[in-house]
Amino acid sequence: MDILFADEKLKRLLNTERVLKRDYGIANAKVFARRMSDLRAVPCLKVMDSLPGGCKELKLDRKGQLSLQLHGGYRLVFEPAHDPVPRKPDGGLDWSAVTGIRILEIVDYHD
């Protein structure tokens, strides 16, 4: 899968292990590395259904975004990097057609 980032600052942060550990902790950095490895390896988002991380579509003010579990309530939040976003006939997201994502943030949105 193609992986983009919301901006260059986020890209640098998430690709610098030392900074990632400092800002989000060692446990989150380790899980993040596994999630990124999984995302890079899959041909489409649909395959993430069968892998650890609890990939799910978000609702309400985060509609259009998805998340993967990290550690301690933190989530890796991203969106499909398609224009237009692939949809099924019923209007839902077509996970099997999502071949690129844009990472938006790491956050504990439950706070």
Can you walk me through this structure?
The structure is a single chain. The protein has a five-stranded mixed beta sheet. A hairpin with an 8-residue loop joins strand 2 and strand 3. It has a single domain, classed as 2-Layer Sandwich (YaeB-like fold). Helix 2 crosses helix 3. It has 111 residues and is α+β, with helices and mostly antiparallel strands. The model has no long low-confidence stretch (mean pLDDT 94). Helices cover 28% and strands 22% of the residues.
Structural descriptors:
111 residues; alpha+beta; YaeB-like fold; five-stranded mixed β-sheet; 5 strands
Number of helices: 3
Low-confidence stretches: none
Helix content: 25-40%
Terminal Cα span: 30 Å
The outline comes out as globular
**Radius of gyration, taken over Cα atoms and rounded to an integer in Å:** 14 Å
Q: Quickly name the level 1 CATH class.
A: Alpha Beta
- CATH fold label: YaeB-like fold
- CATH architecture call: 2-Layer Sandwich
Q: Number of domains in the coordinates? A: 1
| CATH level-four homologous superfamily name | RelE-like
Summarize the structure.
The protein has 111 residues and is of the alpha+beta class.
